[in-house]
Amino acid sequence: VIIKDFFIKLPPLPYEHKMIHILPFFQRLSPLSNAASWDNVGILIPSNIENNDKKYLLTIDFTPQVLRECIEKNIKKVISYHPVLFDAQRNVSLFTAAIIENRISVFSPHTALDNVMNRTLLSRLGCFDIETADYMAIGNNGKRMRDIIDLLKMTCNVKEIRLALSDIHRMDSIPPYIYASVGSGRFSGGENSIIITGEMSHHNIMKLKKFNTIMLVEHCRSERWFLNHLKVMMEDSIPDVEVIVSEYDVSPVSFV
């Protein structure tokens, strides 16, 4: 199916399924009120039928390939970290119309989850005394640079990262602090630290690497590892839920 780049306006749906099984869980984990003011989170596409099953698919991006997976696996409820609609209007693409036509509900937590993801990432790297604020986490570090790189690649299930080694660091250095911000973090300071994010502009790298080492995982690769962690938390917290991590959700960027 070719999704053309134009938009249609859909009428309001007659009623929506509230995804009642997951909303209390996300409210406890990290309320939607924690999302950035510009973000579009919550139930973005409601189903036009009542559906009480507890089978959910987790994905970072809801793409046509993931939609095909939902149809093949008969999944009607999707938790997509990135919003399938970034604005709250009902002007939607033909792809979004296809989601609605297949009676699939889509919930997006996006930046409401970022502090949880950042804290979890630093915990996996062995940091302690972790604090979160403004969609970023900072933790104390006691590991060598090379060991942090190995742990980061193992956590994110990647074979390589981009590394901008600071002018003041070596691979055996033990910087006392690590900052983490999944996706595309915004950093303005820091000193003698490691900064971990998905992507960063060349000019910010040049500015920050004078006193900090920067580790770039790529945008969605810095986020996708969390889906398996989220699956375990949901299955431990929601009775009789079935959670499937998408097999078709992959990074749009490849290394050649």
From TrEMBL:
Binding-site residues for a divalent metal cation, renumbered to this chain: H82, D114, H219, E223
Family matches, as Pfam families: DUF34_NIF3 (PF01784)
GO cellular component: mitochondrion
Domain of life: Eukaryota
Keywords: Metal-binding
InterPro entries: DUF34/NIF3, DUF34/NIF3_sf
Record Gene3D superfamilies: NIF3 (NGG1p interacting factor 3)-like
GO molecular function, one term: metal ion binding
The keyword Cell inner membrane belongs to this UniProt entry's keyword annotation: no
Key word Nucleotide-binding present: no
Family to which the UniProt record says this protein belongs: Belongs to the GTP cyclohydrolase I type 2/NIF3 family.
Protein name according to UniProt: Ngg1-interacting factor 3 protein NIF3L1
Originating species: Trachipleistophora hominis (Microsporidian parasite)
